[in-house]
Specification:
Layout (H helix, E strand, L loop, with lengths): L12 H6 L2 H17 L10 H13 L2 E2 L9 E3 L3 E9 L21 E7 L5 E7 L1 H7 L1 E3 L4 E3 L4 H4 L3 E2 L8 E4 L6 H9 L4 H24 L6 H17 L8 H14 L2 E4 L6
Parallel strand pairs: 3-4
Antiparallel strand pairs: 1-2, 2-3, 4-5, 5-8, 6-7, 9-10
Helix pairs in contact: 7-8, 8-9
Length: about 270
């Protein structure tokens, strides 16, 4: 966001910087529709694909594949290599459930098909095997790949994992200039006690502090990094000493941002 001017005719830069990923995506959809109405743009190309990969990692776990990897998008310890496909279901659009082509049945173990509402909330999330895709899709020489239309009937043959995505909210990792002011509230977007209980969370955090002080190393997993930040917030909140924003806290937030790609799951209850 640094390239944004302080004020813009339609939006203020600060409003964009403080908005959640879902708010930004919903605003983008509104703008895209108006651009299409004016025939300024002719397609519905959107950032949905990258967001689908982020949300898949947040909900299912695993590591995103390098950008150079074409066969799969997410490596999950249980499901293996996942190819992520998605569509945004815009009302009144014909053919909106046709997925981008599957170039090969090799190189991935399962496909995850996510259908988004226009607001980018998840309508459905379904796992399909390469065999199911080959059976229910059709090969197109024009695109040199398997074309699949994600109808309700097709999705019903797969494994419905929508409950792992809903109700999901995400939040952005704070920008560097906001770390000191916002780190405590950001730490609480992860429910460390709910995920690890007090003893488990304390063990992760205490071992990480010792390792950082002795060797300058941090945990490798996003889950452990967020557990550490959560516990440090609780330690400061209920401890006797009022500590300052430390290099360790800064290192945790920086690594969370790097590993997550800037977007993390928000464990706080949804407010309607």
């Amino acid at each position: 966001m640094n390239e944004l001017t302080p004020t813009m005719p339609l939006l203020e830069a600060r409003s964009l910087q403080e908005s959640s990923p879902l708010e930004l995506l919903a605003a983008y959809e509104t703008i895209r529709a108006e651009l299409r109405r004016r025939e300024i743009v002719r397609t519905n190309d959107a950032p949905a694909g990258q967001f689908a990969e982020w949300i898949a990692r947040a909900c299912l776990g695993g590591e995103l594949a390098p950008n150079s990897e074409k066969a799969y998008d997410l490596l999950n310890p249980t499901l293996g290599r996942i190819q992520v496909k998605c569509r945004v279901l815009r009302h009144g659009r014909v053919g909106q459930r046709q997925l981008s082509p599957f170039r090969s049945s090799e190189g991935y173990d399962v496909a995850l098909v996510i259908l988004f509402e226009p607001t980018y909330s998840v309508r459905s999330a379904t796992l399909l095997t390469p065999a199911q895709i080959a059976e229910q899709g059709r090969f197109s020489e024009h695109v040199n790949g398997q074309v699949l239309i994600a109808t309700d009937a097709v999705l019903a043959t797969g494994v419905d994992v929508t409950d792992q995505f809903v109700p999901l909210t995400t939040t952005a990792v704070p920008a560097r200039e906001l770390w000191e002011r916002e780190w405590m509230s950001f730490a609480l977007t992860y429910n460390g006690y709910g995920r690890h209980e007090f003893e488990g969370c304390a063990k992760i955090a205490n071992e990480a502090v010792a390792r950082f002080e002795s060797a300058g190393e941090l945990p490798r997993s996003l889950d452990a990094l967020r557990a550490c930040l959560f516990f440090e917030q609780r330690r400061l909140r209920f401890g006797d000493d009022v500590g300052e924003f430390s290099p360790y806290l800064a290192a945790l937030i920086a690594e969370i941002g790097r590993v997550s790609g800037g977007v993390v799951r928000d464990d706080r209850p949804l407010t309607l």
